[in-house]
Amino acid sequence: MKKIGVVLSGCGVYDGSEIHEAVLTLLALAHSGAEAVCFAPDKPQSDVINHLNGETVEQQRSVLQESARITRGVIKPLHEASAETLDGLIVPGGFGAAKNLSTFASQGIDCTVDDDFSRLVRDMHAQGKPLGFMCIAPVMLPKIFDVSLRITIGTDLDTADLLEEMGAEHIPCPVDDIVVDEEQKVVTTPAYMLATRIDEAALGINKLVSRVLELAE
C-alpha cells in the first residue's frame, strides 16, 4: 500500500486548509487503496477568521489542533514527517497555505515558507517522489525550488503574474484538469481557485491524486 503524505494548514478556507479539498483528497486516496499520512505544523495560526462574516476574530488557535478536526485526530506534527517513509506528498489549498505554511498572503513574492514544510518537500523531490499541490498552494513552490516549474493556479491573472515573477511557468488550466511537470514530478490543479461547487473541485482533485499515485510507481 502506497503511503501519501497530506499536509494540512488548519481547518477552514479563510484561515486554514480548504475543508472540501482536504476531504476530497483523503477520499480519493482511500478509494485508490492508498494510505494517507497527515501532518500539520505545530504552531499558532496566522489569524482566526469568522467564516460566517469573513471578519478577523481576536483568538489564537493551533494549526495542528485545528487540522486534527479534519482527520478525526489522526495527524502528526509536521516536524516528524520524513520523506523516507512516504511515496508521495499532496498539499490541499485554502488560505492556510498562504498564511500558515507560508507568508504569501501578507508578503506576496517576498514570502517565506515554513522550514519544516520546505525541508519535507525538498527531501521528497530529491528522492524522486511526486508532489501534488492544489488551489493556492502552488504559489509556495517557486520559493522552495530553484528550478522553474510548470504549475497552475487556474486562470487568475494576478496570481499567475506573481508566479511568473517568482520564476515559475504558469499554465492556464480549467477546474476539471491538472498540469503535470513530468520532469520534476509536480502535479497541480486549480480546485477552489475556480470551483463553485464541491463536485467541480472533485474533478481536478481526483485526477491529481491519480497522477500522483501513478508517478509514485
Explain the overall architecture:
The structure is a single chain. This protein is of the alpha/beta class and 217 residues long. It is 34% helix and 17% strand. It has helices at 19-31, 63-70, 95-99, 104-107, 115-126, 141-144, 157-165, 198-215, and strands spanning 3-7, 35-40, 48-49, 56-57, 76-77, 88-91, 131-134, 150-151, 169-170, 179-181, 186-189. Helix 1 (19-31) links the parallel strand 1 and strand 2 (35-40). Helix 1 (19-31) crosses helix 8. It is globular, with a radius of gyration of 15 Å. The model has no long low-confidence stretch (mean pLDDT 97).
Topology:
Blueprint: E1 3-7, H1 19-31, E2 35-40, E3 48-49, E4 56-57, H2 63-70, E5 76-77, E6 88-91, H3 95-99, H4 104-107, H5 115-126, E7 131-134, H6 141-144, E8 150-151, H7 157-165, E9 169-170, E10 179-181, E11 186-189, H8 198-215
Parallel strand pairs: 1-2, 1-6, 2-5, 6-7, 7-11, 8-9
Antiparallel strand pairs: 3-4, 10-11
Helix pairs in contact: 1-8
